[in-house]
Design brief:
Blueprint lengths: L1 E5 L4 H12 L3 E6 L9 E3 L8 H6 L4 E4 L6 H6 L1 H22 L4 E7 L22 H20 L2 E7 L1 E3 L6 H12 L2 E4 L6 E2 L1 E3 H14 L3 E7 L5 E2 H12 L4 E4 L16 H5 L8 H15 L1
Length: 298
């Protein structure tokens, strides 16, 4: 396959590059930052981005958009910029595909943030979406764009609602926060009560899902949850991390709920199971690989 990965230098994007190159696919990269190598890459402007050039010059089988903002807090601080990164840029990519590469399959990384606080668990793809943040609303709008461009222009589109993905190269969210605080303090202070729950997925399992979607999805504005179908308390996840990274550190919670954060998440993964998805990593094995990487940073 010939694949274009937009946001190729980010956490998920860089792993996508490695994964598909290891399979022998022809991988092209696009990002606001580029390496000194000029081979198979495009530089995208940070502002007023134009995504036309790659699709004018090549015919891709698949385009994966791993770019955009993935920070709930930033979406409150700068909702206009978050909208540009997560909605406007997606629309620009869709227009470029429609105009120059209409047979290209387009996969956009959405987020479980579209669900907000669900009324019941597990959450399936038909659950009501009530986002708690501008970020969640913008990801939902991007999904609607993918549906629009499939229905009206025939594009092959698919949205992946990623829950709590983690692994080497991740430098944000819970486990990165734990890393920074545990290195600098004897007592690690976290938001919330610790009883909030998440559905964590290790990056290698996310890549397995991505590959299964490419091989099996109808790409008719399709939507899939990307998770492990295991509900874990934040307190338990934090303890697993500290035990693996710096045993003996004390974790306390401030009982303050951060704006935009949901209470409980657990994904229904039936659609992906029908494609053959079987997680290869549990939280313990995934955290071990992540903390091994963190220790190499020191």
């Amino acid at each position: 396959m010939k694949i274009l990965i937009i946001g190729a230098n980010g956490f998920i994007g860089s792993h996508c590059v490695d994964f598909f190159e290891s399979k022998g696919d022809e991988v092209w990269k696009a990002d606001v930052r580029v390496s000194s190598e000029t081979h198979n890459q495009y530089k995208i402007a940070r502002f007023n981005s134009d995504f036309s050039k790659p699709f004018k010059e090549h015919k891709f089988d698949v385009c994966i958009n791993a770019s955009g903002s993935a920070h709930v807090g930033f979406s409150f601080e700068n909702p206009s910029k978050d909208f540009e990164l997560n909605v406007v840029n997606v629309q620009k990519i869709l227009v470029a595909i429609r105009d120059y590469n209409i047979d290209c399959k387009f996969i956009n990384f959405s987020s479980a943030a579209v669900y907000g606080n669900p009324k019941s668990l597990p959450i399936n793809e038909n659950s009501i979406c009530k986002p708690l943040s501008p970020y969640g609303f913008h990801k939902l709008q991007s999904e609607l764009l993918l549906t629009e461009y499939h229905n009206f222009f025939g594009l092959k589109t698919c949205s992946l609602r990623v829950f709590s993905a983690y692994g080497p190269r991740l430098k944000k969210q819970l486990f990165w926060d734990l890393y920074k605080k545990s290195v600098e303090n004897e007592v690690v202070l976290l938001f919330g009560t610790g009883t909030e729950t998440r559905d964590f997925i290790y990056i290698d399992d996310l890549l397995q899902i991505l590959n299964l979607v490419i091989l099996n999805s109808s790409f008719k504005g399709s939507i899939y949850n990307v998770a492990n179908q295991i509900e874990t308390k934040i307190k338990e996840a934090a303890e697993v991390f500290v035990t693996s990274f710096l045993p003996g550190k004390k974790i306390i919670f401030n009982n303050e709920i951060k704006v935009g954060d949901p209470n409980h998440w657990l994904a229904d993964m039936q659609l992906l199971k029908e494609y053959g998805f079987k997680p290869k990593f549990n939280l313990n094995s995934g955290i071990t690989k992540y903390t091994t990487w963190l220790k190499e940073l020191k």
